[in-house]
Amino acid sequence: MNEPTPPPAHSPVDLIDLHLQHLGMTAANLSRAHASFLDTRRSILEETALLTEAHLHAMQALSHPSGSVARQNYLFDRTHLDEFAQGSVVRCFGPEFRVFEGRRIPRIPNGDFLLMSRVISIQGSRHVFTGQASIISEYDVPEDAWFLSHYPNSDLPYSILMEIAMQPCGFLSAFLGTSFLLPREDLYFRNLDGNARVVKQIDAGGKTITNQAVLASTTLSGNTIIQKFKYSLTLEGQVFFEGEAVFGYFSREAMAKQVGLDGGMDTLPDMLADISTQAWISLDPRSFATSGRQPSLQPGKSRLVSLDKIHIADDLKQNAAAIIRAEQGINPSDWYFKAHFYEDPVMPGSLAVEAVLNTLQFYASQANLGETFTAPRFGQAIDHEISWKYRGQMIPTHRKMTLEVIVESIRNTNSGIFVMGNASVWTDHSRIYEIKHAAIEITEAK
Fold first, then answer.
1. For residue 399, which of 113, 199, 201, 237 sits 20 to 30 Å off, Cα-Cα?
2. What letter would DSSP give residue 388?
3. Residue among 315, 375, 353 nearest 439 (CA)
4. Total tally of structural domains belonging to the chain
5. Are strands 309-314 and 208-221 parallel, antiparallel or unpaired?
């Protein structure tokens, strides 16, 4: 692995000089070069006119001794974030990014899946990757947020926590000019690995979450860039979610070479194989009822997860407490393809993590694990680390996501009942995700 050698930053004048050198100043093409010069100059002036005061302050941050300049407590607002998500990268980051205009570029999510409201500050200098850089951003959680509608006490779903934490990582990476390390490539930006833990339960509806993310390292190897981040979320001054994440920039050729976790082999299990058919209990998540069980222990329902089938085998004569296999159909019209990402539709890996946790909820409800509670509810496993590894992607041409969760631990805690399992996720026939120590807790509703 080699440390990256960032390309030099170019002023508008430098860009014009480089453009003229490329054309070649011979007598035969002098007139054409002059016309091109005028076109380039006009374009730069037009782009400069598009810069708002916030953009100018963001550009000042690149040369400020501390690497950060605040303007009324923020550098970028939602308008700028929307431009980067699905508009003009120049209108967000300035004329230097004109080289990427009109190309498919790495983006942050858009629409109501863009879980950033503003960027407060950035520490770091563009094209400098030898030290650490950081970003502080905020997200105003709507009191009636779409992802809270089926979760009690304004609990934030785990996938939403992941997205609030990691979306600023992508913004910081783009702001620093990571794509300039491979300027001729139309790059894809993907999460590869990560871990996180919920430090404490919060009520976030109608409140503002602050994120601090730190870019710890950047490594360039061939046509791939790997970056490592640390992040933490705070509410009212208290940390409640923290972890690490590894992201990669990949060329089209590198993405095409992804073969999953099993070397490209078809390892998809038969949904009812390996165990006696009589051992399986089959559920329909869409019509699941808690009749005969604790009625409040209902698995969360939202746009985040849409499981079609669940099969549970328990009372096993092995170490696992249960094996759960589930399926979810993939449709090109699914909402997340438009939101994640513009011109690069891919299912967020966070939704697969959410599906695994939702699968554990169905198991816990089916097993009536909350029978000793007066009003049981599902909550996050506190001070517990969940980790994930992604080596593939779910795209609109795929038709099915399959999960297998091995339930390995069910135990009593001071706050309730802890349920934990390890999971694998397949797209069609390739195993692409591995999620370790996925866990939920059943607690008494307050």
1. 113
2. E
3. 353
4. 3
5. unpaired
| One domain, residues 121 and 237 | yes
Show the tokens assigned to 155.
Answer: 């609990």
Site of tokens 């297998």: 404
DSSP for residue 266: -
336 within some domain: yes
Helix %, strand %, coil % of the chain (to 5): 30, 30, 40
Residue 12 CB-density burial (10 A; 0-12 exposed, 13-18 middle, 19+ buried): middle
pTM assigned to the model: 0.84
- Please check whether residues 85 and 37 belong to one and the same domain: no
Whether residue 148 is found in the same domain as residue 103: yes
Q: State whether 314 and 243 are in the same domain.
A: no
**Are both 125 and 222 inside the same structural domain?**
yes
Reading the chain (446 residues) residue by residue, the pLDDT tens digits are 445 544 444 433 333 333 334 433 333 343 444 444 445 444 544 444 444 444 454 544 443 333 333 345 689 999 999 999 999 999 999 999 999 999 999 999 999 999 999 999 999 999 999 989 999 999 999 999 999 876 555 589 999 999 999 999 999 999 999 999 999 999 999 999 999 999 999 989 999 999 999 999 999 999 999 999 999 999 999 999 999 999 999 999 988 888 899 988 888 888 887 777 778 999 999 888 765 666 678 887 788 999 999 999 987 766 789 999 999 999 999 999 999 999 999 999 999 999 999 999 999 999 999 988 988 999 999 999 999 999 999 999 999 999 999 999 999 998 899 999 999 999 988 999 999 999 999 999 87
Specify whether 43 is located in the same domain as 65: no
DSSP per residue over 160-217, as a string?
HHHHHHHHHHHHHHHHTTGGGGSTTS--EEEEEEEEEEE-S----TTSEEEEEEEEEE
| Cβ atoms of 264 and 215 closer than 8 Å | no
Q: Are residues 68 and 199 in the same domain?
A: yes
Query: Which CATH number does the domain housing residue 301 bear?
Result: 3.10.129.10
Domain-located, residue 375: yes
Is residue 231 one of the residues assigned to a domain? Answer: yes
- Whether residue 295 sits in one domain with residue 418: yes
Residues 254 and 264: their CA atoms lie apart, in Å, by 15
Residue 262 lies in a domain: no
Domain range for 20 is 9-50
Phi, psi of 164 (to 5 degrees): -60, -40
